[in-house]
Amino acid sequence: MLTRIKDLAANLAPRLVEIRRHIHSHPELSGQEYQTAAFVAGVLSSSGLHVVEGVGKTGVIGELQGTQNNETVLAIRTDMDALPIQERSGLEYASRNVGVMHACGHDVHTTVGLGTAMVLSQVAQELGGKIRFLFQPAEEIAQGASWMVKDGAMNNVAAILGVHVFPSIPAGCVGIRYGALTAAADDLEIMIIGESGHGARPHEAIDAIWIACQVITSLQQAISRTQNPLRPVVLSIGKIHGGRAPNIIADQVQLLGTVRSLHPETRNQLPSWIENIVANVCNSYGAKYEVNYRQGVPSVQNDYALTQLLQSSAEEAWSSDRIQVLPEPSLGAEDFSVYLEHAPGSMFRLGVGYEDRTINHPLHHPQFEVDESAIITGVVTLAYAAYKYWQIK
Question: How many CB atoms within 10 Å of residue 152?
């Protein structure tokens, strides 16, 4: 079966490159993937899958029925949205939409998902059970997975697999990670409330800007002294808003940031830990405060058995020397974790870096590029893993 899957993928390679370049040239922002979704639905329908559109607003589902008649489903998820970035790659098939770019590789993800569906549709009689392809919108704003789940995308799903490109791994290679793959990502808003006054008489006011600086410094210092260094926490303030004029002491400052963590126990105590630090600083200088901590997506925790399945499938397909077991997680976030609240799953890293280049630009970079030979690596790995899943069930 592996030989057959590889042959089918090789025959599809030129078509898959065309698909990827079409999607890359026509990127759409989160929640606006109307043309991408219509294109995906058309490819799935032409391959004989049962297609449902408008799942999770602009998401698409394609189902492939295997030989078993039970309702248990293996899901394969890929995402479709692009980023608000002006592309500077210089490629002939660069984005035609000003200020929008597939700088995170979702065009590759979508193509790999379509290629996997196209391959497996030709060996459907050999599949033991049903496979559901989830083409998700709005991953970049961490909402699409919840939208899909709300519309029933995970009904009867027993396991789910996913893929994400990784430019630091060469094309032709696969990265496998056991346990935590990505971090939980939470939003933080802090309001510092002081009292306005004349810039020449700061002692008559309560300077919210100065106090905000003390809050930021205290939070960063406290992480290194009070948080377990083996359970990392990253807190970044990315936006500060306050003040009216150069000679007026600011009475209010808004701090907006992101908080990343890997361990659920650490994550659960972060809101009270942050508020205590803010309170201590503000109380010391007579200011008031408000802390709004909003939990976003949790950490992606790869299921051990499904990760083993991905690793063994990749090793059989490509040999063990092209498989990297990743020693560290990423502190980036992925709403693939939302699906894992409903079924076990695993996501692997697809190498897309050029081996002969000294620089492979990172994700979210305006000059980000991928080695398109990686598409077949992703398709074969996912297709063979899906086949093997039903063989061992």
Answer: 12
Geometric angle at alpha carbon 374, from 371 and 379, rounded to 5° = 155
According to the 3-state scheme, what is the secondary structure of the chain?
CHHHHHHHHHHHHHHHHHHHHHHHHCCCCCCCCHHHHHHHHHHHHHCCCEEEEEECCCEEEEEECCCCCCCCEEEEEEECCCECCCCCCCCCCCCCCCCCECCCCHHHHHHHHHHHHHHHHCCHHHCCCEEEEEEECCCCCCCHHHHHHHCCCCCCEEEEEEEEEEEEEECCCEEECCEECCCEEEEEEEEEECECEECCCHHHCECHHHHHHHHHHHHHHHHHHHCCCCCCEEEEEEEEEECCCCCEECCEEEEEEEEEECCHHHHHHHHHHHHHHHHHHHHHHCCEEEEEEEEEECCCEECHHHHHHHHHHHHHHHCHHHEEECCCCCCCCCCHHHHCCCCCEEEEEEEEECCCCCCCCCCCCCCCCCCCCHHHHHHHHHHHHHHHHHHHC
Q: State the Cα–Cα distance between residues 224 and 228, nearest whole angstrom.
A: 8
pLDDT band at 304, cuts 50/70/90?
very high
- List of residues 6+ apart from 325 with CB closer than 8 A: 175, 176, 177, 178, 311
Task: Summarize pLDDT for 46-56 with one digit per residue, the tens.
Answer: 999 999 999 99
Upper half-sphere CA count for residue 18 (Cβ side, 13 Å): 6
What's the rounded Cα separation, in Å, for the pair 17 and 372? 7
Mean pLDDT of the 171-185 span: 98
Q: How far is CA 322 from the centre of its chain?
A: 23
Residues 260, 161, 133: CA angle, nearest 5 degrees: 120
Residue 254: strand pairing partners: 191, 241
Give the whole-angstrom CA distance, residue 207 versus residue 190. Answer: 15
Q: pTM for the full model?
A: 0.94
Which pLDDT belongs to residue 100? 98
Q: Which two tokens stand for residue 262?
A: 């890997």
- pLDDT for 199 beyond 90: yes
Instruction: Give the model's pLDDT for residue 67.
Output: 80
Looking at residue 206, its pLDDT comes to 98
**pLDDT for res 393:** 74
